[in-house]
């Protein structure tokens, strides 16, 4: 069977889809298993590690103090950086970030901004003088599809467990004192969840597969997912289309509902993980 997959991947894939089953045995709208841990990196101010099927992603947030931008004196900074390391897949090579890594990073950043879950004003300590910078470094340890879903989930888990040290700023002397023993939780409004789909153009009709593997992404003509739908606690906050085939109106409505239901499951996983971490 594995030789068949290697020698004739498209026929192998189509043989499964034609009988309404995916190569890994899942239904078209079935999620892979998820494992999530908070505070996985001791050297980070907040962190988490997620495993969705074989896709593994870690996020670490580090804090720094800086002067706000002159045009936004009341805002702090939130900087995301997604790395698709060569060790996670043979698809990625050493060197500068690939175009796909930049697309993933920009999409995660756009979802974060569109959901308005973080108010950058909450990161400002003294207007025009001092603000927090949140460096959110996200690294893929193993790539097997649906990378945007995993990146956003681990990022939101890290943000929801982040606390900011108390800072005292003397305006006259410009002296800064940081008390790490007094901390304030970062205010996070809502919980955006991304759900990836690929759309396969079968001989009979176009078929949408949720939470695609890397193999399924390749069979549907993309570097990654063809479509990413984002819900934030019942509110639609983004649809990102990356080429590939299309669906009719009814098909898109079904995808939105599938993504909405999945977002509730991911919310529960994240909240349970945080609650367990807090109780320990």
From TrEMBL:
<dbReference type="GO" id="GO:0071035">
    <property type="term" value="P:nuclear polyadenylation-dependent rRNA catabolic process"/>
</dbReference>
<keyword id="KW-0271">Exosome</keyword>
<dbReference type="InterPro" id="IPR001247">
    <property type="entry name" value="ExoRNase_PH_dom1"/>
</dbReference>
<dbReference type="InterPro" id="IPR036345">
    <property type="entry name" value="ExoRNase_PH_dom2_sf"/>
</dbReference>
<dbReference type="Pfam" id="PF01138">
    <property type="entry name" value="RNase_PH"/>
</dbReference>
<keyword id="KW-0539">Nucleus</keyword>
<comment type="similarity">
    <text>Belongs to the RNase PH family.</text>
</comment>
<dbReference type="GO" id="GO:0034475">
    <property type="term" value="P:U4 snRNA 3'-end processing"/>
</dbReference>
<dbReference type="InterPro" id="IPR033196">
    <property type="entry name" value="Rrp43"/>
</dbReference>
<dbReference type="GO" id="GO:0016075">
    <property type="term" value="P:rRNA catabolic process"/>
</dbReference>
<dbReference type="InterPro" id="IPR027408">
    <property type="entry name" value="PNPase/RNase_PH_dom_sf"/>
</dbReference>
<dbReference type="GO" id="GO:0000176">
    <property type="term" value="C:nuclear exosome (RNase complex)"/>
</dbReference>
<dbReference type="GO" id="GO:0034476">
    <property type="term" value="P:U5 snRNA 3'-end processing"/>
</dbReference>
<dbReference type="InterPro" id="IPR020568">
    <property type="entry name" value="Ribosomal_Su5_D2-typ_SF"/>
</dbReference>
<dbReference type="GO" id="GO:0000177">
    <property type="term" value="C:cytoplasmic exosome (RNase complex)"/>
</dbReference>
<keyword id="KW-0698">rRNA processing</keyword>
<keyword id="KW-0694">RNA-binding</keyword>
<dbReference type="GO" id="GO:0071038">
    <property type="term" value="P:TRAMP-dependent tRNA surveillance pathway"/>
</dbReference>
<dbReference type="GO" id="GO:0034473">
    <property type="term" value="P:U1 snRNA 3'-end processing"/>
</dbReference>
<dbReference type="GO" id="GO:0071028">
    <property type="term" value="P:nuclear mRNA surveillance"/>
</dbReference>
<feature type="domain" description="Exoribonuclease phosphorolytic">
    <location>
        <begin position="30"/>
        <end position="165"/>
    </location>
</feature>
<dbReference type="InterPro" id="IPR050590">
    <property type="entry name" value="Exosome_comp_Rrp42_subfam"/>
</dbReference>
<protein>
    <recommendedName>
        <fullName>Ribosomal RNA-processing protein 43</fullName>
    </recommendedName>
</protein>
<dbReference type="GO" id="GO:0035925">
    <property type="term" value="F:mRNA 3'-UTR AU-rich region binding"/>
</dbReference>
<dbReference type="GO" id="GO:0005730">
    <property type="term" value="C:nucleolus"/>
</dbReference>
<keyword id="KW-0963">Cytoplasm</keyword>
<dbReference type="GO" id="GO:0000467">
    <property type="term" value="P:exonucleolytic trimming to generate mature 3'-end of 5.8S rRNA from tricistronic rRNA transcript (SSU-rRNA, 5.8S rRNA, LSU-rRNA)"/>
</dbReference>
